[in-house]
Amino acid sequence: MRGDLEWGTIPGLLDSAAERFGARDAVVDGDTRITFEHLRAAARHAAGAAIATGVEPGNRVAIWAPNIHEWIVAALGALYAGGVLVPINTRFKGREAGFVLQKSRAKLLFTVRGFLDIDYPQLLRDAGAAAPSIVLLRGEGETEWDTFAKRGEEVDEALVDKRAAGITSDALSDIIFTSGTTGQPKGVMTTHAQSLRVFEVWSDIVGLREGDRYLIVNPFFHTFGYKAGILACLMRGATIVPHAVFDAGQVMRRIGEEKITVLPGPPTLYQSILNDPARASLDLSSLRLAVTG
Question: Model's pTM, two decimal places?
Answer without folding.
Answer: 0.96
